[in-house]
Amino acid sequence: MASQPPATAKDKPDATAAKPLRADAQRNRDALVKAAAAAFAMHGADASLEEIARQAGVGIGTLYRHFPTREHLVEVVYRREVESLCAAADELALHHPPDVALEQWMQRFVDYIATKRGLATSLRTLLNTNSTLFSDMSGRVTLALRQLIEAAVADGSIRSDVDASDVLHALGGIYSAPDTDDWRDRSRRLVSLLMDGLRFGAAKSAKGGG
Amino acid sequence: MASQPPATAKDKPDATAAKPLRADAQRNRDALVKAAAAAFAMHGADASLEEIARQAGVGIGTLYRHFPTREHLVEVVYRREVESLCAAADELALHHPPDVALEQWMQRFVDYIATKRGLATSLRTLLNTNSTLFSDMSGRVTLALRQLIEAAVADGSIRSDVDASDVLHALGGIYSAPDTDDWRDRSRRLVSLLMDGLRFGAAKSAKGGG
DNA sequence: GTAATAAACGGAGGCGCCTCCGTTTTAGTG
DNA sequence: CACTAAAACGGAGGCGCCTCCGTTTATTAC
């Protein structure tokens, strides 16, 4: 479990090599990310950075030391959220039948995107600027979705002639709908509809294999 | 020369209908645009708006009344510059042989773009956001270029199998070159080279018509 | 000319951005 | 434990953004 290389380990020229932060620095950093996530969710991507620092209980200087620009902070928050969304896939897979897990995850995905409406503009700018971020995130999402789909296909509860990118496109159609009041309800219905389409013609009737 | 419709003229429901400004307002507006053009040229698109107001000799409130956002101001300055660039085409056509006019105008065009390097990012954002602006401006430029080309073709000094959009693409290749110190010299050479290509196979050798 | 009114002015004020640097805290060392 | 160097902190300060509203000015009507 001890993954620190304090003295005995050799330096790894790892791409993601980050020397361990000092304990207080790590604490503050975590507090900042948490506060930023809340602030961005509440006020959109141009929430006040000073307010974020205040909520995190640190000085504005500390915020800027950790995140030199607003974009850095937005990126970290965004990565963290996508990561947690994808982690939820594993969690759902453990506690539900594959098709139910898939449906619930798709619903979460759409809901998550919905919360990002306000950030749409700046997030798109960020994703255009930072192509690494874009490919990392879409790769991560596709992977999570693929695993859910494969499990459901293996289980025979959905048809086998679909793949993750097809479904991702279909979900795109759902969340790009204009935002009315009943957006949430409709998206729920549409995800459910998509799910029925996926179940149609599935092998489940011939259930037998383990 | 009197183009004001003070009392006798009827109201035109023109799309660009703008009620005439009060004299002082028009004066201030002009001063602001002029100051802004200078400031953007000097400091890029995020020049200080307060400084612009100061240079124009007006209060910051006046600036914001005329141009509610920075983008409004950038747009007006940009439109004015493109307009003046295109007007230069007519001017050149009056005082030079068609091929010389064409070459000189292309040179001005490339020089102009060069001054916009600093604004590239924000200008691109603006053009993406505001598609009307984009089509207006590129239409205006294409028209000016087409007239120069047609005159030179008619005169027999350049070949006839090119059109404005071809040449615009070629110019694009020139100004998108990486910016080194000798950028200006090289672009001059390249424009000259392009011009030679346009002259090649022209009818001018068979000069005879008046 | 004067009066009335709509239009325009302008800058103070409140807030946010970001930098800079004196102060504090941590992680090592003996 | 004390000591030190390096790392991190934090907030004052300077500047820019933008709004709001009391004051000034151009225009119109008489």
Order of helices and strands of chain A: HHHHHHHHH
How many strand units of chain A?
0
Q: Write out the CATH superfamily name of the largest domain in chain A.
A: Tetracycline Repressor, domain 2
Q: Major β-sheet of chain A, in short? A: none
Distance between the termini of chain A: 35 Å
Structural class of chain A: mainly alpha
DSSP strand content of chain A: under 5%
Summed up, the domain count of chain A is 2
CATH fold annotation of the largest domain in chain A: Tetracycline Repressor, domain 2
Question: What multimeric state do the chains show?
Answer: homodimer
| CATH-derived architecture of the largest domain in chain A | Orthogonal Bundle
- Could you say which overall geometry of chain A the principal axes of the C-alpha atoms support? elongated
Low-confidence stretches of chain A: 1-15, 206-210
Rg of chain A to the nearest angstrom? 20 Å
Mean pLDDT of chain A: 87
**Tally of DSSP helical segments of chain A:** 9
The portion of residues assigned to helices of chain A is 55-70%
CATH class division of the largest domain in chain A: Mainly Alpha
